[in-house]
Amino acid sequence: MAIYQVTDKKTIAPLYAGWEETMIWSCLDDCMGVAYADDLEKPASAQIIIGPYSFLAGEVNYDLIKNNFDYSFDMIPQNPQWEKAIVETYGEKVEKRMRYATKKEKEAFDTAKLQEIVSSLAEPYTLKAIDQSLFSEIMTIDWARDLCANYGDSERFLKDGLGFVALKEGEIVAGASSFTYYSEGIEIEIDTRVDERRRGLALACGAKLILECLSRGLYPSWDAYNKESLALSAKLGYRFDKEYPTYEFQ
């Protein structure tokens, strides 16, 4: 069965209706990512690939499940039928794990509390917006690279992205940024250097990024990779919505 790269995202939008995932919206808005389907005019199955994530929707299609181009994706199924097909296809090559979605509540944030978090960051740490120089530095640091990697170059990040880093004596030790963006907001990425964790750096960077998003009329979406990330999000004003499965390649 043939699969096709989709240019007119309106054709696959109905297959993703009700799926509140900003990375899907990034692709449907033609901001980031690439889409595939079993038919260009009346698709029954579709796949959206953005960063390392593959979102599978509609009727189960094994060709789309195999459409990974030798890249290690997190495969995110729309329903149990897709889950079963993923396991049938890859077996022990994939591992099921849960992620944690938060409610998308535009009026949920306490800006005074967020500003207090930002202001509480003390020396020797400072916060700075990601500029061209910091972008270039981030792209050379393994633990921080995801803060900017989806944009390819600094010009595009400065145009469409947004982020802040915590500096200690001039070194990047933590950061929060737009992992992806869509027409109405961003998906947040937060990273901290291992030896600087549990010092409130991720919290301060996250608070600063959320405040900046709100000032620009953007929604700062938070989808938690694990329960630690979910707990951090709660300190910033997010509320848990639901858990959902992903399948990671081993």
Describe, in plain words, how this protein is organized in 3D.
This protein is of the alpha+beta class and 250 residues long. Helices cover 28% and strands 31% of the residues. The chain contains 8 helices and 13 strands. The protein has helices spanning 22-28, 62-65, 80-90, 111-119, 132-138, 154-160, 201-215, 227-235, and strands at 4-6, 34-37, 45-50, 53-58, 74-77, 94-102, 125-129, 163-168, 171-182, 185-192, 219-221, 223-224, 240-249. The strands form 2 sheets. The protein has an 8-stranded mixed sheet with strand order 1-2-3-4-5-13-6-12, sandwiched between helices. Strands 7-8-9-10-11 form a 5-stranded mixed sheet. α5 packs across α6. The radius of gyration is 19 Å and the shape is elongated. The protein starts with a strand and ends with a strand. 38% of the residues are buried. The model has no long low-confidence stretch (mean pLDDT 96).
